[in-house]
Write a structure and sequence with these properties.
The chain is mostly helical. The chain has 20 helices and no strands. The radius of gyration is 22 Å and the shape is globular.
Amino acid sequence: MDYVLDTLSNLIHQTAFFNLTWGNYVMILVACVFLYLAIKKQYEPLLLVPIAFGMLLVNIYPDIMITPEEAENGVGGLLHYFYLLDEWSILPSLIFLGVGAMTDFGPLIANPKSFLLGAAAQFGIYIAYFLAIFLGFNDKAAAAISIIGGADGPTSIFLAGKLGQTGLMGPIAVAAYSYMSLVPIIQPPIMKLLTTEKERKIKMEQLRPVTKLEKILFPIIVTIVVCLILPTTAPLVGMLMLGNLFRESGVVKQLTETASNALMYIVVILLGTSVGASTSAEAFLNWDTIKIVFLGLVAFACGTAAGVLIGKIMCKATGGKINPLIGSAGVSAVPMAARVSQKVGSEADPTNFLLMHAMGPNVAGVIGTAVAAGTFMAIFL
């Protein structure tokens, strides 16, 4: 009888109820909120569902992220091995490959001025960098945090890993992906505040047709030019342009389909769950995380505002031919930011169609954020 009671007692004490802290319960609640936003509100569910579930798992069973050195049998937890692919910058680079295979750079090629709007939206990154220094982060940590302003989760993870800021990778990635999913909520008030109704109603001329040759040459030329100037951008820009070359060449349809579908979704699962699993209560519930979330919001808001303001200047310079709303799409949340530009424009005038015009700054923002990350790597590595 004593044996049975001891066995039952051991089983009961092995349950998570006896091992969790109040912080774990807080993080479980946060995970459930994320799942609600992803499933009920459909805020970037492809990202938030795996991130939230990884967060849920690690706070119920911390050993799922245990390292081989910490494990008694020398075997690490399942999500630890997924997480190593983040630290080694493998998964973020593969995400860029998939994004390139899914993205049409035609609007950017047809309107090269979009590069200016994409560059302007990176202003928030540098504002956040200096603000992070002011708040007590070292230069490498500040650089890794500031990339959140580009609304680009993979680049944030990539730079944090390259600069050795793996301790901050969880909060940085969660903040970046959270703001990416909240683009439809955060951006419209800023866009409306900085533009007049007359500006929001501006209809832009139809973009010129882009030839197949231009679309093939674009990823090759961008890779050569950008990587010669900033070789550190090669893993991100190179993979982005390789995926796009798959798409536009028309001779490797199997590779295009794999990169933009099966491989992309596999990588999203691995990256999302491992990033979520890096948010244990011990790692996440601290003042640094609060600072990171605040800095990310400031960076994102400043980037959106800078894009709209440069759009207003270009509107004046072209005699009212450019709708300033497309400047907000300069952050690299593709294609969500472009859709927000379209939505706000159509609210002012239901016949206004800005989506394709906004896609130019949007894809320029992807390149711009990668260049910003490469610049930080060139400075600090």
